[in-house]
Amino acid sequence: MKRILVVLLVVVALLSFSKTKLTFWGFMMNDEHAKKVLEKFMAENPDIEVEYVQLSWANGFDKIVTAIAGGEDLDVVELGNTWVANFAERNALESMDIFYKNYGKDYVGWNTVYYQGSYWAVPWLLGTRALFYNLELFEKAGLDPDNPPKTWEELYVAAKKINELSDDIYGFGMPAGENYSPWQQWFLPAVWGTGGDIITEDGKRALLTSCKVKETAEFYKALSEVSLKTKQADLAKAFGEGKIGLYVSGAWDIDYLETNYPETPFNVVFIPKPAAWYGTHASFAGAEVLAIMKHSKHKKEAQKLVEFLIRPDIAMEVAMIWPAIFPSHVDAGNDPWFEDHPMHKVFYEQNKYAKPVPSIPAWPKVQAVLTEAIEKIILQDADIDTTHFEYNMKIQKILDGEE
């Protein structure tokens, strides 16, 4: 009996010892959620053990950079899509072209992970922006709540009428005073809606002085005159308090508003496009993407983990932790959950119009300059042509590697 027990213990020890240990660094899941999800994976793959490390958006980028520089063993890492080009340029990521070949038709968002001819991650969870509008303020302003703005002109007219209701009510909420939201929520997507951009596709030439960027800036400046201009979180609060008629934000504000301002009636629709006959309902494409690190010693097992995490049922389980981003699988919208959450479904469908930022390593520097230019126009009433000329040169220097 003792001999059998010893043999069993040896077998268990050998099995335990033979497990491949993967490291998975991520942002979306906390330790509790990760445990539930990864236990399912390990049950399906008993020869693989996964160690999860939760990162924060405040310092996660720097931690990954430090780990790479220090030669730390990393296998699978969740990245924000705006980081992909940066890490690909560092030669830190394994090509995921095989995933695109095998799964390309079943998933959307591949444009968020493409850089210099290859796919460097797999789109996992997608998030974008849409237009929130206050039903009660629409009625008070003589607007039809069942016919929300679909174009820039319709939005401006609606915002102007709401702005005229009272001195403490604003037609629109325009983000300002922080790093990302001034360009991310709508200004740059509005440029995309015209078919324009602020840099060329090859990332070599700045386009801030182009006609389409000027067209967007002129609209945005006019809209700013009937807008409350402050930080994004303050806009959400003001909207909940009935002080803003319309603003652009992410799906996270649905739950925020319903929880904190249950008496405020609102709805969500697509981002307006430039005109009924022109442009698209473009929005910012945010994405949580999964990358396998170049120096991973367990790439085969890492691929299994990525394949598991992008499965529609698993991705939906993760997305429901914080329903502001949704699975990238093309059939995810058929999940019964959306039947009871029609406003969230708008965001899922808005994703088909979403566009990622230019895929260049220098984007973090470019976006900072873009924010400065936007705020100079909407906060300081600066001349558009002069501002665009000045900041176009700044962006060009960044693209040329001079800054």
Please tell me the overall pLDDT.
93
CATH architecture of the largest domain: 3-Layer(aba) Sandwich
Number of strands: 15
Rg from alpha-carbon coordinates = 24 Å
Through-space gap between termini: 74 Å
Q: From the 3D structure, determine the CATH topology of the largest domain.
A: D-Maltodextrin-Binding Protein, domain 2
- Helix share, percent: 40-55%
Beta-strand content bin: 15-25%
Structural class: alpha/beta
Describe the structure.
With 403 residues, the chain is an alpha/beta fold. The protein has 2 domains: 2-128 and 285-355, Periplasmic binding protein-like II (D-Maltodextrin-Binding Protein, domain 2); 142-283 and 362-399, 3-Layer(aba) Sandwich (D-Maltodextrin-Binding Protein, domain 2), CATH 3.40.190. The chain has helices spanning 2-17, 31-44, 60-69, 84-89, 97-103, 135-140, 152-163, 181-193, 211-224, 232-240, 252-260, 299-309, 312-319, 342-350, 363-380, 384-399; strands spanning 20-26, 48-54, 76-80, 114-115, 118-119, 122-127, 130-134, 170-175, 227-230, 244-249, 266-269, 283-284, 286-292, 326-327, 354-355. The strands form 4 sheets. It has a 6-stranded mixed β-sheet. The protein has a 5-stranded mixed β-sheet with strand order 9-8-10-7-11. Helix 2 (31-44) links the parallel strand 1 (20-26) and strand 2. Helix 8 packs across helix 15, helix 10 (232-240) packs across helix 11 and helix 15 (363-380) packs antiparallel against helix 16 (384-399). The protein is globular and about 70 Å long. It starts with a helix and ends with a helix.
